[in-house]
Design goal:
Elements lengths: L1 H6 L4 H11 L7 H21 L3 H14 L10 E2 L6 E2 L1 H13 L15 H15 L3 H27 L5 H18 L3 H14 L10 H22 L15 H5 L7 H4 L23 H14 L6 E8 L2 H5 L8 H4 L3 H11 L9 H5 L1 H7 L2 E5 L8 E7 L4 E6 L13 H16 L1 H12 L7 H6 L5
Parallel strand pairs: 3-4
Antiparallel strand pairs: 1-2, 3-5, 5-6
């Protein structure tokens, strides 16, 4: 495979490094800038939601035990979102990336197999805060990270993600490094070293789904990406052909052919990451079309859940590939159970974080209903498509076909107001109504911020 790449004369790693190094706000089309702002707002809500999660508490306890309490009181460091602690940029990105992904409510680029926000935004914020850059630099750096991870993910999804790698952790390291490369102002040579080094850090396996380790994949990607960029700025070297070279990422971590031309075609003129989705439900994205259908049919059930004889979801094969758990033990596992997700959405009328807690996973009403949920797959259906059928005891048969999942599908994107409503719901309990509104307002105008440090102050915990 590497011989094919070299024969074509494509310098994948170097070209991506140069793009990440040289991208500037002034060259970004207005729709790209808008999408970056939408992504930033969505991530901040997800991170604030996760700020008090046990996984985050464990990471902070680890930092305190191994580095000392003073390491979490670094005034010149970077903010831990929703918390009072501050620490060095790599550690801050490590924690913030994990907290943004821990509830699995963050954005998705399904065709690339990644959750791009939690690998790009934490790295961008930590590096931007440390360097004291303005909002325009932040926007450009985020666009660079989103685009690099998006393009590599699109080219490798079938041969890397499908066999079992978690691309958010692997490809995500390249995205985080690209973001930091841009903010630190690395030249193309330094950027090539940073991206090459980042490829060696790429790690994460999908067996981790349903555990804290899944979210730590994102945190690791952020921390390693930042570290590689800082090291390269100091003269550290990495392989210049880390992706395309013999025994490089494509050859070692992809189980089948890769078309690297997909990575470079129209790079810098077409931004593939703008075709991504946002989660309006706090669980595995592949089941979201079924949840759209469940909400639509719920009014016809009229609360008579004991009268439901059978619930049948016909879905894309990825649903049972990614979400196999029938009887979840705890809230974290329930996010990866299509049976639980469909049942709890029908009963509660929503699928927010409160529907995926330990208590809701163990609740008798949910447990009984999910035992009547059947999930079958069909390759004729798209990933964002579902046919849901509910059979009632009185003989009624309720059917709804969802062609494109709301929010999750790039073909049915959420409005700006949808994303702001989601942000406010998640942020208000953590930082209050007034600061949440101010943070949302200034995020829509983040490119006017003279120094990201001032903007980040709004996200700190009391």
């Amino acid at each position: 495979m590497s011989d094919t790449v070299n024969a074509r004369g494509l310098q994948i790693t170097g070209s991506l490094a140069r793009f990440a190094s040289e991208l500037r706000y002034e060259s970004l089309p207005a729709p790209v800038v808008r999408e970056v702002k939408r992504a930033l707002l969505d991530f901040m809500g997800c991170a604030l939601l996760g700020a008090k999660h046990k996984a985050v508490t464990v990471l902070l306890s680890y930092l305190e035990q191994t580095r000392g309490r003073e390491a979490l009181q670094n005034r010149s460091g970077a903010t831990i979102i929703g918390r009072v602690e501050r620490t060095d940029p790599a550690a801050a990105a490590w924690v913030n990336g994990t907290m943004g992904h821990v509830y699995d409510f963050d954005d998705v680029q399904t065709a690339a197999g990644t959750h791009p926000g939690v690998i790009v935004v934490p790295a961008a914020l930590a590096a931007a805060e440390h360097q004291g850059v303005d909002g325009r630099v932040l926007v450009a750096a985020m666009a660079a990270g989103y685009e690099v991870s998006g393009r590599v993910g699109l080219a490798t999804q079938a041969t890397h993600y499908e066999p079992g790698w978690h691309s958010t952790g692997t490809v995500g390291t390249l995205g985080a490094a690209s973001t930091a490369i841009n903010i630190l102002g690395l030249d193309p040579e330094q950027a090539n070293n940073a991206l090459g080094a980042a490829a060696s850090h790429a790690a994460g396996i999908r067996v981790s789904f349903g555990t804290m380790m899944k979210s730590l994949h994102a945190g690791n990607a952020c921390a390693h990406g930042i570290e590689c960029a800082f090291l390269a700025r100091l003269g550290f070297t990495g392989p210049k052909v880390a992706l395309e070279g013999q025994r490089g990422f494509f050859e070692a971590a992809c189980h089948g052919p890769v078309d690297p031309s997909r990575i470079l075609t129209d790079l810098g003129s077409e931004y593939v990451f703008t075709r991504k989705g946002y989660k309006l439900y706090a669980c595995g994205g592949v089941v979201h079309p079924a949840l759209d259908a469940a909400l639509t049919l719920r009014s016809s059930v009229k609360g008579a859940y004991e009268s439901i004889r059978d619930i049948h979801a016909e879905t894309h094969p990825q649903v049972l590939e990614q979400m196999r758990i029938k009887e979840p033990v705890g809230g974290m596992q329930s996010k990866f159970s299509p049976y639980h997700a469909i049942a709890v959405t029908l009963i509660d009328g929503c699928a927010l974080p409160t529907q995926f807690t330990d208590a809701r996973a163990a609740a008798e009403d949910v447990r009984q209903l999910r035992q009547r949920v059947r999930v079958d797959t069909s390759p004729r259906l798209r990933r964002d498509e579902t046919i849901l059928t509910i059979e009632m005891a009185d003989g009624r048969r309720l059917v709804h076909h969802v062609e494109h999942a709301r929010g999750y599908s790039p073909d049915n994107p959420p409005s700006d107001q949808d994303l702001e409503d989601k942000f406010m719901t998640l942020a208000e309990p953590v930082i209050g109504v007034a600061r949440s509104r101010e943070l949302a307002k200034r995020t829509w105008d983040v490119d006017a911020e003279p120094n990201i440090r001032k903007w980040m102050e709004l996200s700190r915990g009391a």
